């Protein structure tokens, strides 16, 4: 073989080998994926095309579970005087669109800063109970609602957040959000039924539940049954979620921008979903 021919033959063999390695790497990755697929963070198969904000704007008069003001803003510096703006905040962790960390209802559960960041991005399942909530303020997400969701959308995705869409978000600026009854104390708004929470814990790998109301439990609950079942199990909750009606029942990816405050039992979060 002439010098040129030898060089060309070596080059061609090298290219073939590179091709071979590339092909085996792809095949290897595919095989690995079949053997132990890493848990999917993203619900959708294609790149997301829009982001929906699921966070209510936090204001000092934002409605609270016990009715008292829980968020206070004190201006420390203002632009007119100081040429910059800085406010100081005082707030209860469970105010506005916020997370309930496992520690909220347990002696030594995970605090908000300890929740692994990979648990804060997950597929979102939206259970729409608006119809029954429109005629019954005390409506609850029941095992039947979960079964109906599965019937329509397939199995619950791995490691999902299951959200209740009751339509209550539209009442956030009015007294109807707390909806105190004639006895002057009992609230009436939708939430999760304890048996639905148990079903999600026993039959799915759901890691979070979310509500568009002030509590995971429905308004008249006397005992925080869902809080006491769900949170000590190491799972988290989201309350006062906005804009669920803009999201599909299945297929969105939730991102929870929970605060990383040491020892926090929860805290206001920027919550959004990619569709
Ligand atoms: N649904 C509310 C309940 C709540 O905030 C709460 C429940 C029991 C005892 C105190 C509470 N918040 C007080 O500031 C929450 O879990 O954030």
Describe this structure in words.
It is an enzyme of class 3 (hydrolase). This is Kynurenine formamidase. GO terms for molecular function: arylformamidase activity. The protein has helices at residues 3-35, 79-82, 130-135, 143-153, 194-203, 225-230; strands at residues 51-53, 71-77, 86-91, 98-100, 121-128, 140-141, 161-165, 191-192, 208-211, 236-239, 252-257, 266-268, 270-274. The chain is built from six helices and 13 strands. It has 275 residues and is α/β, with parallel strands linked by helices. The chain has a nine-stranded mixed sheet with strand order 1-13-11-5-7-9-10-4-12. Bound molecules: N'-Formylkynurenine. N'-Formylkynurenine (NFK) binds next to loops.
In short:
The protein has 275 residues and is an alpha/beta fold. The protein is 25% helix and 21% strand. It contains 6 helices and 13 strands.
Which descriptors would you attach to this protein?
alpha/beta, 25% helix, binds N'-Formylkynurenine, globular, two-stranded antiparallel sheet, hydrolase, EC 3.5.1.9, single chain, 6 helices, 275 residues
DSSP helix count?
A: 6
Spans of at least 5 consecutive residues whose pLDDT stays below 50 are 1-38
Task: Please give the largest β-sheet.
Answer: 9 strands, mixed
Strand content: 15-25%
- Using the alpha-carbon principal axes, give the shape: globular
> SSE order in H/E notation?
HEEHEEEHEHEEHEHEEEE
How large, in whole angstroms, is the Cα Rg?
Answer: 25 Å
The neighbouring-strand order within the major sheet is 1-13-11-5-7-9-10-4-12
Q: What ligands are attached or bound here?
A: N'-Formylkynurenine
Helical content band: 25-40%
């Amino acid at each position: 073989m002439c010098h040129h021919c030898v060089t060309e033959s070596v080059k061609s063999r090298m290219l073939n080998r590179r091709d071979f390695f590339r092909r085996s790497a792809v095949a290897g990755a595919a095989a690995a994926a079949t053997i132990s697929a890493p848990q999917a963070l993203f619900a959708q198969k294609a790149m997301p095309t829009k982001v929906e904000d699921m966070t209510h704007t936090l204001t000092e008069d934002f409605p609270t579970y016990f009715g008292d003001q829980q968020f206070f803003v004190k201006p420390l510096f203002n632009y007119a005087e100081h040429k910059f703006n800085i406010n100081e905040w005082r707030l209860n962790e469970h105010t506005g669109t916020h997370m309930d960390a496992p520690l909220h209802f347990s002696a030594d559960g995970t605090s908000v800063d300890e929740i692994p960041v990979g648990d804060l991005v997950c597929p979102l399942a939206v259970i729409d109970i608006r119809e029954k909530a429109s005629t019954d303020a005390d409506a609850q997400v029941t095992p039947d609602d979960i079964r109906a969701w599965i019937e329509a959308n397939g199995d619950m995705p791995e490691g999902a957040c299951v959200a209740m869409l009751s339509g209550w978000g539209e009442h956030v600026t009015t007294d109807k959000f707390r909806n105190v009854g004639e006895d002057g104390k009992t609230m009436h708004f939708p939430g999760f039924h304890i048996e639905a929470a148990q079903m999600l814990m026993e039959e799915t790998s759901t890691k979070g539940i979310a509500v568009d109301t002030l509590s995971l439990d429905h308004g008249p609950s006397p005992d925080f049954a869902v809080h006491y079942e769900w949170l000590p199990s190491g799972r988290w909750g989201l309350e006062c979620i906005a804009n669920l009606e803009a999201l599909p029942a299945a297929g969105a990816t939730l991102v929870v921008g929970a605060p990383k405050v040491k020892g926090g039992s929860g805290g206001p979060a920027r919550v959004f979903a990619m569709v």
